[in-house]
Amino acid sequence: MAQVPQTFFDALAVRTWCGLALEALGRAREEIDAINVYPVADGDTGTNLYLTVESAVAAVEAVFAAHEVGSGDTGGPSLAEVTRAMAHGALIGARGNSGTILAQLLRGMAQQLVDGEDAHIDAQGLRLALRRAADSARQAVAHPVEGTVLSVASAAADAAGGAEGDCGTVARAAYEGARAALAATPGQLAVLERAGVVDAGGRGLVAVLAALVETFTGEVPGTVAVSASVRHARVGSDTGQAPRGGPGADDAAECADGVTEGGPAYEVIYLLEADDASVARLRQRLDVLGDSLVVVGGDGLWNVHVHVDDAGAAVEAGVEAGRPYRIRITHFAADDVHTSRGERPARERAERAVVAVVPGEGLAGLYAEAGATTVLARPGEPPVSGELVEAVRRAHAREVVLLPNDAELRHTAAAAAEQARAEGIRVALIPTRSAVQGIAALAVHEPERRFDEDVVSMTSAAGSTRYGEVVVAERQSWTMAGICQAGDVLGLIDGDVAVIGSDVTATAESVLDRMLAAGGELVTLVLGDEVPESVAERLEARVREAYLAVDTVVYRGGRQGALLLIGVE
Questions:
Q1: To bridge 507 with a disulfide, which of 105, 184, 232, 501 should be the other Cys (CB 3.0-4.6 Å)?
Q2: DSSP secondary-structure letter at 5?
Q3: What tens digit of pLDDT does each residue of 235-294 get?
Q4: Longest alpha-carbon distance in the chain
């Protein structure tokens, strides 16, 4: 569908730009992945950029959706609301060096756009936003080096600064400046010149800027050459900085295939809740521990990325600085995507695997013990389709059963399943609407059975499990059980509010009684962090006293959003 060109940079223009940028990165993802292995052979820059922007898009769409269902608010979200959401979404979804740097570029733009609290900005505001983006990204990188995405961002800002005209003219100038800088990157980094390719992260930024041009003009800029001769080379840059020792040291240390010898063994990434002073100390400590250090964010939330030999020390440094979570550790030597083609045979694929979305750390451990590959969904931060696709790939199986465990994730999971099928993986999506339905499905999973038989059995087990939740109302609203007030305890059965109360235990008992009125053999209780053991003890006693021959199992779910999950099979 053709896009309507935007005159000013307002909330709708930000939404349009994010959507077009995601489409552009989706088209270019494999091409960008193919030219990236520096400073390690990741081959995932395009994927990292795509996942980062996908998270930004989800956050922006959530803001628009909230206004559409708001009480009488027809004005739509403000530019400040949307740009904050864009920056926050990119920050929490940032992957790899390229993703974290792009997240900071978007954050820099957002800071400039929010400063004025205007409904929209003109060409001059766009020039300033691009300048601030480039400067803030460079400041976030511990050891900047030219010939990377930082050079491309700076060139875009420089070109935009000299452009006269409307937002479309400024956007096109930024794109052309970035495109020229990208073409020059092989002359700035010897590793790119030897391979005959341009910088991979910079190539991704050019795609994002092309989407900005399309937003304001409706025109799609021409294609970008990634190499003069792509031969076998898959070399580009996923980082805006040199490994320890600078470009010269790196050139001397590289193997013939472009992979740096003697580099750190692990990539460590995590989100961190911490104050500015603690983060400043963290930067110093991580800079000593390793290289490729990028720390982006602010206002108490940060995304930390570093390559180290001692992954535990990098995480411990985060614990000392604040509260790290969403911790991802990749062992370069062990992961076949970090080795060049032909260096070692790919590990054998499993015949079948289960991939499940889980709402808390406790359930993630439970599912993992049962053999599932898990994707953690924290309260207010649902996974995007790219994360599910990545989990399917990580499961490394010919056949995958996907359990979304949330009715709201049905479309996201379906999109992920389609993408995985396009990559040759046989995927069956079981529409589980709660983690307790997923537990029931996993309990009857038998990898030795024929795939279709296993899927039918798991689907039947999930479908025969009623699910309930006990949550706290965040605001006044109409429900199936009447009007609730903020702070009320709500009991939900199969997704609908059935009980409104003031006490967690009493509400849970009422929900349990209603669910067992139709019969059942097994009750599953999953307690959130905020719920004392006494609640589970009271519910277990209730089942023993009133429902003969019904068993109860209790799990700790961690930070799962709901106070209590209930399943009745």
A1: 501
A2: P
A3: 344 555 554 444 333 333 333 233 344 567 778 888 899 999 999 999 999 999 888 899
A4: 80
Q: Residue with structure tokens 């038989």?
A: 453
What is the rounded CA–CA span in Å between residue 487 and residue 489?
6
Quote the CA–CA distance of 182 and 188 in Å, as a whole number: 10
Alpha helices in 429-558 (DSSP H): 435-443, 451-463, 504-516, 533-546
pLDDT band at 371 (very low <50, low <70, confident <90, very high): confident
Q: Are 381 and 333 in contact (CB under 8 A)?
A: no
DSSP 17: H
Cβ of 289: how many Cβ atoms within 10 Å?
19
Cα distance between residue 472 and residue 479, in whole Å: 13
Report helix, strand or coil for 373: strand
> Can you read off the two tokens belonging to residue 394?
């990580």
DSSP secondary structure letters along 249-310 = HHHHHB-TTSPBTT--SEEEEEEEE--HHHHHHHHHHHHHHEEEEEEEEETTEEEEEEEES-
Pairing of strands 489-493, 496-501: antiparallel
Task: Give one word for 380, left, alpha or beta, with left for phi > 0 and alpha for psi -120 to 50.
Answer: left
Q: pTM of whole model > 0.70?
A: no
How many whole angstroms separate alpha carbon 465 and alpha carbon 410?
18
**Model confidence pLDDT, tens digit, residues 192-218:** 777 778 888 899 999 999 999 999 998
Bridge partners (DSSP) listed for residue 163: none
φ and ψ of 233, to 5 deg = -70, 140
Encoding tokens for residue 98?
């390229």
Quick check: 497 and 477 in contact, CB under 8 A?
Answer: no
DSSP, collapsed to helix, strand or coil, labels residue 563 as: coil
Tell which residue, 314, 463, 458, 439, has the closest CA to residue 365: 439
Beta bridge partners of 495: none
Q: Which residue has the tokens 């939900």?
A: 492
Residue 382: how many other CB atoms lie within 10 Å? 18
Structure confidence by residue, pLDDT tens digits, 136-169? 999 998 888 888 899 999 999 999 988 888 889 9
Residue 424 has what DSSP assignment? T
Query: How far apart are the C-alpha atoms of 156 and 172, rounded to whole Å?
Result: 9
